[in-house]
Amino acid sequence: MGGHVGLAVERESTPAAQEAGVRENMVAYRLKPPTSLVGLIAGAGIYHAGGGVGQVAVDWLLPGPAQICVMLGGGPMTAMIGARRFDPVPSVALCGPTSQVVRVQTQGGRVLSLGLTAQAWARLTRHSASTAHNRFMPLHAMLPTGAAATLAEAMVVAATGSDPMDTIEAALAPLLAVPHDDEPMITALIAVLNEGGHHSASAVAERLGMSEHTLRRIAVRYFGMTPKLLLMRVRFLRAFVRLFVLGPNGRYDPLEDGYFDVPHFLRDARYFLGMTPRQFMAMPTPFLDAVLRNR
Hints:
Layout: E1 4-9, H1 15-19, E2 26-31, E3 41-48, E4 57-61, E5 67-72, E6 78-81, E7 84-86, E8 92-95, E9 102-106, E10 110-116, H2 118-124, E11 136-138, H3 145-160, H4 164-175, H5 183-195, H6 201-208, H7 212-223, H8 227-246, H9 262-273, H10 277-281, H11 286-293
Antiparallel strand pairs: 1-2, 2-3, 3-10, 4-9, 5-8, 5-10, 6-7, 6-9, 8-11
Helix pairs in contact: 3-4, 8-9
């Protein structure tokens, strides 16, 4: 059975948020991927947004892997990734791999999100992940029509059913059944990324026994970005998530995560967050709070 762990989040709206018509009460559920999808699903969850017509719920999502999102009920969802605005986000959407924060604005309803690893991307579509980098697009634009329709229908049912991951597994497992020829290289790169520390693209290529050209092809095709940017994102997220969980009063030294000094960390924060870590952490981020503080 596909279980889920409830993460209820309730916050009082700040005066500024109330004036802007923003409601911050929302509930998230993490979904545990079944055994058949381990290594292919990079997290899954159901997000119940507060608000409704004329009442907007706002949250921020950190850069991360590609996600399939299905929106049910409520008003239209809009999103900003850097300077790009998606208004409205398709009701059945693919958000490609991101290297900037995503500002999401909803008006009630329910969102089911399903993260895709690079291995899943390789099995699921012939399109390069770089095509969807920092973009929302209709799911059918990246998947074969039949596969997109099957998966979209299953996710709609899953978003309202009692066993969401069972429903998703039945539709998704057949689409991901055949490993891709490049998966050994993808898996090897992921293992290096998970090690932490500071790596240059040339050092990673040497470590993996492949040319820099091959490393770039793998990173761009399946992770959606160059090796340099991918390594930067991994290092920054490892450092920032640690800081975020500690909270504003926590003690943290970014040198522990491969940074040369604090200004180096802050430059990356400007790139990935569009602001300083302190500014980001001062904003209400209820969904992100639930996901990160209850991992």
